[in-house]
Amino acid sequence: MSGINYIKRIDGALNSIVQINTSDSSATATAANYITAQAANIAAINSSEVSDPFDWLVGDLVILLASDGTSLCTINSTFTSLSPYVSLAPTDQVVTINNATPGTIRAGTFNLVQQATTMTSGNIVGVRGAVNMVGASGGFVYGGQGKVISTGTLSGSVWVAGLFGQLDLSAATINSGQVAALWGDWGATGAVQTNMSGTSGIKFTNTTADKLNEQINTYGDATYYLNIRGNPGPLSYYLAAGTSGGSAGDSSHCAAQQVLKIIVQGSAAYIPVFTQNS
């Protein structure tokens, strides 16, 4: 039989998984209307399981596998027929509007509701973007991407961000918890360090001719402007100030106790630090 040749139903805790295997290639199976054309085969195979061969799609997880073993797509089904799956290749979700005062419109929303009064363990994530890979020597890899493409003038009181991390704590109480609007984490275990010269905790690049007003802009009061800590021990860029002429610890000039080592225009530079302020 050409096309879909068998269906396997696996009952899961959250929903049923329906694996559809096809003897056709990936190129054939990703063509538009492929699933619709195979509806008769599905009906014949599945007729002994349910009276309506399409009803099992409601709330099921559908996985299509081509003859080369490639997983073409995974669909969280909310439909009662196969007609929405006329094209199985991953496509963009496009919402088109033409309104100068649109209010709030989102191309998609993932809203996870946690109803427990106090969460004590576990991980809750509104949306996750993950790339599973082996290695790379070129190209771009993003776990998640936020991007704004503008073809007009950005002016006035508009706020535009490629990626915007925002907290709504208007009804919350903060009691020593670790809370941040934007948090980057390197992971639980470090890599094999053969050359770390291109790595950064936070990196911003601007290769255009646009001269920004500043590279970093912070707004709002805080007890400290920066909190710098080592893990697990001392910081290799926090040094005792040198005492020779021109150094930050020169007693006849700055006489700083410590320095922070940075790079400016490709060369090492030192910011003086005083360990008391009385």
List keywords for this structure.
278 residues, mainly beta, 3-stranded antiparallel β-sheet, 3 helices, 6% helix, 15% strand, extended, disordered N terminus
Major pleated sheet: 4 strands, mixed
Q: Give the mean pLDDT.
A: 79
Please give the radius of gyration in angstroms.
Answer: 28 Å
In helices, the fraction of residues equals under 10%
Shape: extended
Low-confidence runs: 1-15, 43-60, 75-89
What oligomeric state best describes the polypeptide chains here?
single chain
What's the tally of helices? 3
- Beta-strand share of residues: 15-25%
Determine the structural class based on helices, strands and strand pairing: mainly beta
How would you write the strand order of the largest sheet? 1-2-3-4
What does this structure look like?
The chain has about 280 residues and is mainly β. Among the domains are: about 5-85, no CATH class; about 225-278, no CATH class. Helix content is about 5%, strand content about 15%. It has 3 helices and 7 strands, in the order E-E-H-H-H-E-E-E-E-E. The strands form 2 sheets. A 4-stranded mixed beta sheet has the order 1-2-3-4, covered by helices on one side. A 3-stranded antiparallel beta sheet has the order 5-6-7, with no helix packed on it. The protein is extended.
